[in-house]
C-alpha cells in the first residue's frame, strides 16, 4: 500500500524540472505497488528517465503499451500514422481482401502494430526490430494478440514466406538528422537507443534502404506508411515516386504529425 503524500512527490518532480509534476505524480502513485517503488520511480524520473520507462507503460491509441528501460518510447503524434493505417486497412477489407497481413518495421515496443491489430479483426501481424531489447519488449505486447516479433535488420528479420504478401507496412524508421540529435530532449538522447533516432545526414537514410526492398515484399496495391517531419515529406515523396509508388501526404496540425504513404501499382 502506498502512503507517500502526493505533495512530496510533486515537489520532488517539480524541483527536478518536470513541467507536468502533478500529472506525473498521480501516474506514479497509480502504478507503484508500495512506498519503496514510489521512491525508486521518483528518483529515476527526477534523474531524467522518460516517464514511460519509469512507469513501465505508455498510453498509445487507447492501449496500455508495456515500455522497458532502454527502448524507444512511442510518441503520441505517431497515433496519426496508426489512424491512417487503420483507414487504409478497412478500405482494403471492404473491397474483398480476404486477409490482411501487416508488418510493423522498426517496431520498438510494437505499439503501432498492436494498435492496428486491436482495431481490426483478423489482422495477421508481424513485427521486426534490430534492437534485442525492443524485440523482447514487443513480444510482451504482441504475443497476446497472436502476433510475432523478429530480431534483425529491416526485412532480413522477417520470415521469407512473407515476401510478396504484405498488405500494410508500418515503417516507423528513425528520421532525425544526425546533426540535430543534440536538439532532442535529454531523456531521448540519454535513455533511448541512438539507432532508433538517428536517420543520417538528412534523416532519411534508413527510409532509402526500405523503399526499394519493400517492393519485393508488398502485394499489389499495398501501402507503406512512414512518419517524417513536414520539411522531409517532399524528399520522402520523391524517393517513393522514383521507385514507382503512388504517393500521398497526410498531416495533422493537432498532433504535429506528417505521414507519407506510398502505394504499390503492380
Q: What report would you give on this structure?
A:
With 266 residues, the chain is α/β, with parallel strands linked by helices. It has two domains: 43 residues, no CATH class; 188 residues, 3-Layer(aba) Sandwich (Rossmann fold), CATH 3.40.50. It is 38% helix and 21% strand. It is built from ten helices and nine strands. The strands form two sheets. The protein has a seven-stranded mixed sheet with strand order 5-4-3-6-7-9-8, sandwiched between helices. Strands 1-2 form a two-stranded antiparallel sheet. Helix 1 crosses helix 2 and helix 5 packs parallel to helix 6. The radius of gyration is 19 Å and the shape is globular. It starts with 5 loop residues before the first helix and ends with a strand. The model has no long low-confidence stretch (mean pLDDT 94).
Q: Tell me, briefly, the overall form.
A: globular
> Portion of residues in helices?
25-40%
Q: Could you spell the SSE succession in H and E letters?
A: HHHHEEHEHEHEEHHEHEE
CATH architecture of the largest domain, by name, is 3-Layer(aba) Sandwich
Mean pLDDT value? 94
What name is given to the CATH topology of the largest domain?
Rossmann fold
Which secondary-structure class do the elements indicate?
A: alpha/beta
In spatial order, strands of the major sheet run: 5-4-3-6-7-9-8
CATH class of the largest domain: Alpha Beta
Main sheet overview: 7 strands, mixed
Low-confidence stretches: none
**C-alpha termini separation:** 60 Å
Counted up, domains total 2
GO biological process, one term: methylation
InterPro entries: HemK-like (IPR004556), MeTrfrase_put (IPR022446), N5-glutamine_MTase (IPR050320), SAM-dependent_MTases_sf (IPR029063), Small_mtfrase_dom (IPR007848)
EC number: 2.1.1.297
GO molecular function: peptide chain release factor N(5)-glutamine methyltransferase activity
Amino acid at each position: 500500500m502506498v502512503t507517500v503524500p502526493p505533495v512530496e512527490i510533486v515537489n520532488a518532480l517539480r524541483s527536478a524540472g518536470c513541467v507536468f509534476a502533478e500529472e506525473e505524480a498521480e501516474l506514479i502513485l497509480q502504478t507503484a505497488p508500495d512506498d519503496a517503488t514510489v521512491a525508486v520511480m521518483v528518483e529515476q524520473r527526477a534523474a531524467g528517465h522518460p516517464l514511460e520507462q519509469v512507469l513501465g507503460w505508455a498510453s498509445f491509441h487507447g492501449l496500455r503499451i508495456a515500455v522497458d528501460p532502454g527502448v524507444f518510447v512511442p510518441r503520441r503524434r505517431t497515433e496519426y500514422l496508426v489512424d491512417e493505417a487503420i483507414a487504409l486497412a478497412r478500405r482494403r477489407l471492404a473491397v474483398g481482401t480476404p486477409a490482411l497481413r501487416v508488418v510493423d518495421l522498426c517496431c520498438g515496443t510494437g505499439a503501432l502494430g498492436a494498435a492496428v491489430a486491436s482495431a481490426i479483426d483478423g489482422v495477421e501481424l508481424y513485427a521486426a526490430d534490430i534492437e534485442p531489447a525492443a524485440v523482447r519488449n514487443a513480444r510482451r505486447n504482441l504475443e497476446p494478440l497472436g502476433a510475432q516479433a523478429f530480431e534483425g535488420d529491416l526485412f532480413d528479420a522477417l520470415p521469407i514466406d512473407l515476401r510478396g504478401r504484405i498488405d500494410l507496412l508500418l515503417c516507423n524508421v528513425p528520421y532525425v538528422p544526425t546533426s540535430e540529435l543534440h536538439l532532442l530532449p535529454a531523456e531521448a538522447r540519454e535513455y533511448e537507443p541512438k539507432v532508433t533516432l538517428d536517420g543520417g545526414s538528412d534523416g532519411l537514410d534508413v527510409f532509402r534502404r526500405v523503399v526499394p526492398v519493400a517492393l519485393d515484399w508488398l502485394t499489389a496495391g499495398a501501402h507503406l506508411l512512414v512518419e517524417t517531419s513536414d520539411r522531409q515529406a517532399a524528399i520522402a515523396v520523391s524517393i517513393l515516386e522514383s521507385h514507382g509508388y503512388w504517393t500521398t501526404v497526410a498531416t495533422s496540425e493537432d498532433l504535429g504529425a506528417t505521414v507519407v504513404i506510398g502505394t504499390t501499382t503492380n
